[in-house]
Specification:
56 residues; mainly alpha
């Protein structure tokens, strides 16, 4: 299992390592999914904060 934070730091290197192992992975899709995931996490945190404010 690879840490997405490490992949994010050096995407090209990660892609090259996978190619050396003959692993075919769509790096653009990984990047897109990661961005989407981070956006959803941000929205979730915003909603949790709003909920906290409302419940006071």
């Amino acid at each position: 299992m690879h840490n997405i934070k490490d992949i994010r730091k050096d995407l090209k290197s990660f892609e090259e390592h996978l190619k050396k192992r003959f692993v075919n992975v769509d790096i653009d899709e990984i990047k897109k999914l990661d961005e989407n995931n981070r956006e959803l996490i941000q929205k979730k945190e915003t909603l949790e904060q709003e909920k906290k404010e409302i419940s006071k």
